[in-house]
Design goal:
- The complex is a heterodimer of chains A (152) and B (508).
- Chain A contains five helices and no strands.
- Chain A is mainly alpha-helical.
- The termini of chain A are far apart.
- Chain B is mainly α and 508 residues long.
- Chain B has a two-stranded antiparallel ribbon.
- In chain B, strand 1 and strand 2 form a beta hairpin.
- The chains are: A mainly alpha (152), B mainly alpha (508).
- The interface between A and B is large, with 65 and 58 residues.
């Protein structure tokens, strides 16, 4: 058990519980045709969440930190991947599905293993074009189109 | 006769060519999900929901629902079939229900008996699947009819029982599992309240009026979370695996497996029906049972075919059994069935007692399709097992990024906005951080799905009793269900305190 993490997570859930309790005080108390208003359920759950958070925090504080070093965790690769995904979502609509997905996949494949650039490019190009063709052209679905830059 | 009539209707539905296609695609994807590392049945089903939604978009709503559920159910039981393949060949379970299959399956493979091991697993899965299906046909409708007599208080207590059961077995720490559950229930209250019309926790942001969508959260917590976990653990090396060789088992193998298969089927089915238990637990229990019944228990763990046949049958029977509470009561008994339930709701088909009355074509169509699905799976897992074994060689470095790209595509395709992609990403990171510290993802997703049902029945019951909370304990059936719910939470805690090892269900 990771003591620090549990304590922090417990505190976060405590705040979430408090937020729902406070928030539900602002909701109108009763509604037509029902004696129980929309505030009751979230209020009660918020209180339960606070109590549970207190249990988790106290358990974490009492327990010994038994966390072991579980070998090298690949935080660098994970952070790069997460960053790439955030950028991907950020530019998803403005750059369009095909281009953003192609670039995202090439970058992420290379993050996973910096070899075989051409294979990465090939798979990425195939995937992005394949999904777009099938979904947008065959099934008439909506995905962000190519941007209106000159030349397109 | 009534049931036969409906079953005929179901076969009519399931035999439509597009439904056979959907069924095949579903079990095919399920087989892939079972074989590929880094993606389990719940994330597999969650990932395919958006894709099914777009493919069935052109059908009439009821037909679309039938086809979609046929396919998604196929993914579920398909994954149960083929999860054993990786257990046997590379000692890595494809999903948690196949953990025990590693024990004897991999040993058989090392002794050069990989082929017969795969064959027995497939045959056992088939027998168990068919048995569970027959039981489903016999039991589901009568059960639904009993549940029809439930009023709101009983229903509320039933949902509480379902939630308690899954949460009680969901992880190493009960308070953590409960926290996740309550958080999920709270998330379900975000949005416009359907009864009063008042906006709750929306901060006047129009995007939040509909609430957070279950599918966004499920894909984030299950699929993204799993990919992140796999990447950070660095589990991306390609493993060497055993040669399959000849597939057909010998007569001796068959003779040794027949009883374990039958026992596993019956036991697995009943465990599957219980909420919270599910395939993983049933395979563990079956293994223990076979070992205890065996005259040569010392062979277990060294390639005993009984230790493979029993659990493999049990987990498939349990997968079938799990469909019963889902269809008849509207209570999912595992993470994967919870995701399936979310899919039903997305199509405006509410699982539960009314399902058999309101949407007979959907429910019987799905049930009938499971016959074809089982046969297809037998074919996919016996003659074609070598082809799927090849799939294991797909390097994770290509597979994992593609799963991420499919998550993004899927959520954007069904939701049509960037906001949901951010929500998905946020839940992916939460799921990964929390999951790595024993906060299980399944109860949260379950809470999101069952929250509205719990709240509506609570409010209806209290309206009926003029706000008197004692209605839940004075009505006998409701009191019984609540007692069972409390026991489900308290008994494992007591066992733990007594120093007993409690099996937990990490069905992700």
């Amino acid at each position: 058990m990771n003591k620090t993490f549990d304590t922090i997570a417990g505190c976060v859930f405590l705040v979430v519980g408090a937020f729902f309790v406070v928030g539900s005080l602002g909701i109108s108390k009763s509604s037509y045709g029902s004696t129980v208003g929309p505030n009751v359920f979230p209020f009660g759950l918020g209180v339960i969440l606070i109590l549970l958070s207190l249990i988790v925090i106290s358990q974490a504080r009492r327990s010994a930190d038994t966390r072991k070093e579980k070998g090298a965790h690949d935080y660098k690769r994970f952070s790069l991947l997460l960053l790439a995904t955030i950028v991907y979502v950020f530019v998803f609509e403005s750059v369009g599905y095909v281009i953003s997905t192609f670039l995202y996949l090439v970058i992420v494949f290379q993050v996973m293993e910096r070899r075989r650039l051409f294979l990465s490019i090939g798979i990425s190009a195939f995937f992005s074009c394949f999904v777009y063709t099938i979904y947008v052209i065959v099934f008439q679905g909506t995905l962000p189109p190519f941007p209106d830059w000159p030349g397109f | 006769m009534d049931t036969l009539h409906f079953l005929a209707l179901g076969f009519g539905e399931a035999l439509a060519w597009h439904n056979i296609l959907f069924c095949f695609f579903g079990v095919f994807c399920g087989t892939l999900v079972g074989v590929l590392p880094g993606i389990g049945p719940s994330s597999g089903v969650a990932l395919l929901i958006p894709i099914t939604a777009s493919v069935t978009g052109t059908l009439a709503p009821e037909q679309g629902a039938t086809s979609a559920i046929i396919m998604l159910a196929g993914v579920f039981y398909g994954a149960m079939y083929s999860g054993s393949t990786t257990s046997i060949l590379i000692n890595t379970p494809g999903e948690s229900a196949s953990v025990v299959t590693c024990l004897d399956g991999y040993q058989m493979a090392r002794q050069g008996r990989a082929g017969p091991a795969l064959a027995i697993a497939a045959i056992g899965s088939f027998v168990a699947g068919m048995f569970a299906l027959l039981m489903l046909i016999i039991v589901a409708k009568p059960l639904a009819e009993v549940a029809l007599r439930f009023g709101p208080p009983e229903y509320f207590s039933l949902v509480v029982l379902g939630l308690a059961a899954i949460t009680g077995l969901a992880g190493k720490s009960m308070p953590k599992a409960l926290i996740m559950l309550v958080a999920g229930l709270l998330i379900s209250t975000i949005g416009i309240d359907t009864v009063s019309g008042s906006a709750r926790f929306t901060f006047d942001i129009p995007l939040l009026y509909q609430g957070l969508e279950f599918i966004t959260i499920a894909v984030g917590m299950f699929a993204l979370g799993e990919v992140f976990t796999t990447i950070i653990k660095g589990d991306v090396a390609v493993q060497e695996f055993a040669k399959i060789g000849r597939i057909m088992p010998t007569m001796q193998d068959l003779r040794d497996s027949i009883l374990p298969i039958l026992r596993g089927s019956v036991m697995g089915f009943f465990i599957g029906v219980l909420p919270g238990a599910g395939p993983t637990l049933s395979s563990f229990i079956s293994y223990t049972m076979e070992k205890r019944l065996s005259s040569t228990p010392e062979r277990f763990g060294k390639g005993a075919i009984e230790g493979l046949a029993g659990p493999e049958s049990a987990n498939n029977a349990a997968a079938g059994g799990a469909m019963i509470p889902l269809l008849a009561l509207g209570i999912p008994s595992s993470a994967t069935t919870a995701v399936l339930m979310g899919a039903f709701i997305m199509y405006n088909v509410q699982p539960g007692p009314l399902l058999f009355e309101k949407h007979p074509a959907v429910v019987w169509g799905v049930i009938a399709s499971m016959f074809f699905g089982n046969v297809m799976l037998l074919v996919l897992n016996l003659p074609l097992v070598k082809m799927f074994a090849k799939m294991m060689e797909i390097p994770a470095k290509y597979l994992l990024p593609l799963i991420l790209a499919i998550c993004v595509f899927g959520i954007y395709a069904v939701q049509g906005n960037i906001f949901n992609l951010w929500v998905m990403l946020a839940f992916g990171v939460f799921g990964f951080l929390l999951g790595g510290n024993d906060f299980p993802a399944a109860p949260l997703v379950l809470g999101v799905i069952l929250g509205p049902m719990l709240e509506n029945n609570l409010r209806r019951a209290l309206t009926g009793s003029n706000g008197d909370y004692s209605i839940f304990v004075t009505r006998p059936v409701s009191a019984l269900l609540l007692t069972a719910a409390v026991l489900w939470i308290v008994v494992p805690l007591l066992l733990k305190r007594m120093g007993r090892r409690v099996i937990v269900n990490e069905d992700e």
